[in-house]
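Narrative of activities, Objective 1.

The group set out to show that a structural description can be obtained from nothing but a protein's sequence at a throughput compatible with the screening campaign. Below is one input-output pair from the validation batch, recorded exactly as produced.
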Amino acid sequence: MAVYKEEKTGTWRVIYRYTDWNGERKQSQKRGFKTKRDAQAWEREQLNKATSNLDMTFSSFVEQYTADMKTRIKENTWATKDHIIRTKLLPYFGKLKMCNITAKQIITWQNEMLNHKDDKGKPYSPVYLKTVHNQLSAIFNHAVRYYNLKENPCQKAGSMGKKKNREMLFWTKAEYLKFAEAMMDKPLSYYAFEMLYWCGIREGELLALTPADFDFEKCTVSINKSYQRLNGQDLITTPKTEKSNRVITMPQFLADEMQDYLKMLYDVGEHDRMFTVTKSYLHREMDRGAKEAGVKRIRIHDIRHSAVSLLIDMGFSATAIADRVGHESIDITYNYAHLFPSKQAEMADKLNMERSV
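Output recorded for this entry:
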């Protein structure tokens, strides 16, 4: 690399050469530095990045992390990660050198996050704090795994926040039926919530449904994609997890309802979206319906919890429920353990019988 002053502009220019990923020598340059010191600092940072030297800044390593990871992650997932990195991590750690960031500095940052209040005096939720911390830890884990960082300082500092909210809200079947009745004045809303509740599908899975996904002879619907609105564009992606790819058998009444709904749609193609609304539309309808029906307001995702709780109440196993809703059975067991009927008394009785034999 070399640093030159440009006489016409009085600014400094850096010319640097590097070897790309397939061994070819390349040359590039950057102009417009106000001082020689600025140009040299930028030059050193490029050398650190080229040699994967963790004397580089956190900001520079984030560029490397982005190059390594962005293409491996779904676009909507990366957008969430990128927002956290830009707004919560770079402002604090951006100028610090990767190799010098300590557990003490991370604890100080954690305390700032924990003490933060928005304009209404509301702090970050425990779940959000956990998510933000996990992203910082993921960046350091990447540096440990692939760039020879000695250790992840987040592990020494310890975590913050909680993985899940303590309270899981859901509707009973009676509450849902009251809500559904209030939705009947708008067929699109009514049929959308019917699919969410009776099939236990996710919001994005609902909004990605097309007529081709339904087999009315077999009363099935195939879940094989998800809808997101990202940067003003409609985005169809694969479902959340591999397990999410599934075929759900619908009750006959729901299959009939979906056929009725399709007859209402004008000029819809086999692969066109059936529910061409936004997530915010569904949230507004949720507000309206809950108020009119006189039931508690829950989140859209809590309808999925409601579907699972209904199946548990009907006596289905965690494995059977997991197959229907696209979860791992261990997740159903862990997240909904309090809803399954206890077998402790039955176990104790059988152990008593064994002891007396």
